[in-house]
Structures are given as structure tokens and as C-alpha cells.
Write a structure and sequence with these properties.
The chain is mainly α. It has two helices and two strands, in the order H-H-E-E.
Length: about 120
């Protein structure tokens, strides 16, 4: 992941979020735009990081190491080296299994058990 690519994407998100503002922004709104820029960064940075991680880890034709195509699981057979940077914040002492799954209907397909009523 290139930090400049991430910064440019977050900057683009900030520009789109503020595109409705004209040149007549008052002095009092300078702090507001600073605050909104920080909120855009806080909201957008994890999304950009997640998308970049997905692109890196699914850019393969068959499962190899911790990379696998969309819809297939990748299972680590050994600990990642200390230089491993595909997944931000990956632990060096954890064996990972991961998959990027999509739903053709864009609906959640996870099933969760119905919680039981609390008994007292």
C-alpha cells in the first residue's frame, strides 16, 4: 500500500464532501471546514485502507500464502515474516485464514441465531 495513494484518495473524499462550498466561505466557517476535513479523514481512511487491503490480497489467480481470489479462502501454513505488509497491523505470531466474499444480491447472507428472551 502506498501512503501517497491513500492520502490522495482521502483528499479526494474531502474535496467531494466540501464541493458545495463557494468562494464566499466566511472566516467563521474555516474552523468548521477544518473539523469536517478531520471527520472525512477519520471516516474515509479505514474505508480506503480496507479497499487497498482487498485489492492487494485478492490480486492472484489461485490461493498462495495469505492471498486468494475473491470468494476463496486463504489459509496461512506458517507465520508471516516480519516484513509482511499486505494486511495492516498483522501479528507476526498468528496464523490467519481469510476470504473476501461477495453476495450477488448485495444482501447480507450471514445467519445469526435469534437471541433468547432473558429469564429472571
Amino acid at each position: 500500500m502506498k501512503p501517497m495513494t491513500i492520502r490522495r484518495t482521502v483528499l479526494a473524499i474531502a474535496l467531494v464532501a466540501t464541493s458545495g462550498w463557494g468562494p464566499d466561505v466566511a472566516q467563521g466557517q474555516a474552523k468548521l471546514s477544518e473539523k469536517q476535513g478531520a471527520e472525512v479523514y477519520i471516516y474515509g481512511y479505514p474505508l480506503v485502507t480496507l479497499e487497498m487491503t482487498r485489492r492487494v490480497t485478492t490480486n492472484t489467480a489461485e490461493p498462495v500464502g495469505l492471498r486468494a481470489p475473491m470468494g476463496q479462502f486463504a489459509h496461512a501454513r506458517e507465520y508471516p515474516p516480519m516484513t509482511y505488509r499486505d494486511i495492516p497491523g498483522a501479528n507476526a505470531d498468528t496464523l490467519y485464514s481469510s476470504a473476501w466474499l461477495t453476495s450477488p444480491t448485495n444482501h447480507s447472507f450471514s445467519a445469526f441465531p435469534t437471541p433468547r428472551a432473558a429469564t429472571s
